Amino acid sequence: MAKNLKLKAARAALDLSQSQLAAKVNVTRQTISAVENGDYNPTINLCIAICRVLGKTLDELFWSEEQ
């Protein structure tokens, strides 16, 4: 699984730490780190929650042209 640089960039653009994003979506910082690093495939519910917090769509954060 590839790193999710779009998620990391969107989080950074809002000046949110991994811990802050994790608290907003009710997961651990380690979970956010694992998603960003491509070590964890999040559930659709987690993807939606992350998108809502970051103001992005699923396509913008989780769709890759390489798929």
The ordered string of helix (H) and strand (E) elements is: HHHHH
Mean pLDDT: 93
Number of helices: 5
List how many beta strands DSSP finds. Answer: 0
* Cα-based radius of gyration, to the nearest Å: 11 Å
Helix content: 55-70%
Oligomeric composition of the shown chains? single chain
Structural class: mainly alpha
Please report which band the strand proportion falls in: under 5%, 5-15%, 15-25%, 25-35%, 35-45% or over 45%.
under 5%
Q: Largest sheet at a glance?
A: none
The rough form would be described as globular
N- and C-termini, Cα separation: 11 Å
Low-confidence stretches: none
Topology:
Layout lengths: L4 H9 L4 H8 L3 H9 L6 H11 L3 H5 L5
Notable features of this structure?
single chain; 67 residues; mainly alpha; 5 helices; 0% strand; globular
Description:
The chain is mainly alpha-helical. It contains five helices and no strands. Helix 2 crosses helix 3. The chain is globular, with a radius of gyration of 11 Å. The termini are close together.
